[in-house]
Amino acid sequence: MLDRYVIKDGKRLRYGYTTGSCAAAAAKAAAIMLFSGKCVDAVDIDTPKGWRLHLDIEDALLGDGFASCAVRKDGGDDPDVTDGLLIYAYAQHIPQSIIDVEGGDGVGLVTKPGLQVPPGLAAINPVPMSMIRKEVSEVLPPNRGVKITIRVPNGKKVAERTFNPQLGIEGGISILGTTGIVEPMSNEALKESLALRLHMLAAQGQDRVCLVPGNYGRDFAIQRLGMDERWICPISDFVGYMLEQCVEYGMRHVLMVGHAGKLVKIAGGIFQTHNRVADARMEIIAAHAAALGGDAAAVRDILNAVTTEAAFSIIERAHIDGVYDRLIQRIGYHCRRYMGSGVEFGCAMFSMDKGLLAMDEQAKHMVEGFKHV
Are 172 and 107 in contact (CB under 8 A)? Predict the structure, then answer.
């Protein structure tokens, strides 16, 4: 366990270490065992962050011409589906004086261009690959060679809960980590993984994307609007960041489909929609209801509502027409202003109770282009 902490929002949160660090440590230990003929209990490795890790070795096994062992992933206080996974390294003698590194069972295979690893290779990112080679080279005897196979026995099942299926990484998890260290509650890591989808589309020569805040938006786009999943890119709460990335990666046609609970905030010019950062949903809805003739009682009821669904029910009971269309127009106004000229933007907003609430003219035009591969 890594005994380092950071204070965030008044909480003491523990750092962890990446699957890349685990793979490097397991590979180093397996190489030591292979050439010494003795099992090891722990190894030290360096990380790009500059922290040296002392990691325990589990399930060590020596055989005829091979050695195998594992390091358990520790995500610290960062919510991570790979936390607790055993990352294995299997070391074998080879005649060439080289270090050959491959992915085995539970490590994903890259099938689409646009990632840091070319199609056809195991999803072991460049920094972890460099770490593995460095650590193994430090213990490799002169003029000897070794083949290292990284395995994650439960990796295929765990990968179903990651972005890998959407990124075209099949059969397992990715071996990741640019610093070797997991920073608890790291927004930057999440933002990078979200932008990766845009990078892939751009690498395939595409200039259009459908942004969705989460699974509700994704499901609505596919099931209700008939869109092909390949165009869909999740953005979580990072609306502004992902709009900037759309411009960065040359997206010329940007459609946004989302639940009103998220999109209403954008109508107020809010581009980070986490409720701890900003929650003016009722104020925004109430302002537009008032502008369209809603009386004081209806406005007060909206301001006291807990959910957007409840606020919309008040609007309909009060027969205040045009609120949804005004909201969608303001969302478009703020997003176009945010991205600048040269990008076509459209938006569709829905609620769980009422289905599609509003869709601007740009979205109506764009949806057909997202139905085909």
Answer: yes
pLDDT tens-digit map of 250-280: 999 999 999 999 999 999 999 999 877 888 9
CA angle 15, 160, 169 (to 5 degrees): 90
* Six token digits for residue 164: 């890998």
In angstroms, the Cα distances linking 249 to 196, 212, 218, 246, 266 are 10, 17, 21, 5, 22
Backbone angles phi, psi at 349, to 5 degrees: -125, 140
Q: How far apart are CA 342 and CA 346, in angstroms?
A: 13
Q: What is the DSSP letter of 295?
A: -
Q: List C-alpha distances in Å: 319 to 232, 289, 292, 315, 350.
A: 35, 10, 10, 6, 19
Side chain identity, residue 237: D
What residue ranges define each of the domains in the chain, with the CATH number in brackets?
5-182 (3.30.2110.10), 187-370 (no CATH)
How much is the pTM? 0.73
Query: What is the distance in angstroms between the CA of the first residue and the CA of the last residue of the chain?
Result: 46
Tokens matching residue 227: 């869109």
Segment 281-287 long-range contacts (CB within 8 Å, at least 24 positions apart): 281/308, 281/311, 282/311, 284/327, 285/311, 285/312, 285/315, 285/323, 285/327, 286/311
Do you know the residue count of the chain? 373
Which H/E stretch holds residue 332?
helix 323-339
